[in-house]
């Protein structure tokens, strides 16, 4: 992994051509960058789990004060992985900061679309 903490540098390093297998040590750096660039460091780090998933690439779950993001362990490329993590972080923001009872794909969710676009990412409901 490059030493630079820039998202663009990481995307260039890993490329968009090949499949990306997610490893735990890479999640932390990407999480910190997204938290800084999109959420102004307002999010605490939740428990993040990687595993093989069927029917989804990411999932945000909450029970009282326990928050968890689960990510699939294989992605088309690194950028898709970053977009999915960012997508789940928006749901986390909805629950933690906006105190919404359910983290849905509503107008608050899509209000982050411009911030994603500004750093070269897409925010959408379905990714494949």
Fold and architecture overview:
The chain has 128 residues and is α+β, with helices and mostly antiparallel strands. The protein contains five helices and five strands, in the order H-E-H-E-E-E-E-H-H-H. The protein has a single domain (7-118), classed as Zincin-like. Helices cover 41% and strands 17% of the residues. It has a three-stranded mixed beta sheet, covered by helices on one side. Helix 2 (24-39) crosses helix 3 (78-96). It is globular and about 40 Å long.
Using brief descriptors, characterize the structure shown.
three-stranded mixed beta sheet, globular, 5 helices, Zincin-like, 41% helix, alpha+beta, 128 residues
CATH architecture: 2-Layer Sandwich
Shape: globular
Structural class: alpha+beta
CATH topology: Zincin-like
What count of helical segments does DSSP give? 5
- The percentage helix is 40-55%
State the total count of DSSP E strands. 5
Mean pLDDT over the full residue set:
89
Strand order of the largest sheet: 2-4-3
What is the CATH class? Alpha Beta
* Count of all domains: 1
Q: Approximately how much beta-strand content do the residues carry?
A: 15-25%
Major sheet, described briefly?
3 strands, mixed
Q: Runs with pLDDT <50, length 5+?
A: none
Following the backbone from N to C, one meets helices and strands in this order, namely HEHEEEEHHH
Output the radius of gyration. 14 Å
Euclidean distance between termini CA atoms: 26 Å
């Amino acid at each position: 992994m490059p030493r630079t903490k820039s998202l663009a540098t990481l995307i260039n390093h890993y490329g968009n051509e090949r499949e990306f297998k997610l490893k735990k040590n890479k999640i932390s750096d990407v999480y910190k960058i997204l938290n800084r660039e999109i959420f102004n460091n307002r999010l605490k780090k939740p428990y993040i789990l990687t595993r093989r998933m069927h029917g989804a690439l990411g999932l945000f779950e909450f029970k009282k004060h326990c928050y968890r993001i689960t990510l699939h362990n294989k992605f088309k490329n690194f950028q898709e992985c970053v977009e999915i993590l960012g997508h789940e972080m928006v749901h986390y923001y909805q629950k933690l900061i906006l105190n919404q009872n359910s983290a849905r794909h509503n107008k608050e969710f899509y209000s982050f679309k411009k911030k994603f676009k500004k750093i070269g990412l897409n925010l959408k409901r379905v990714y494949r």
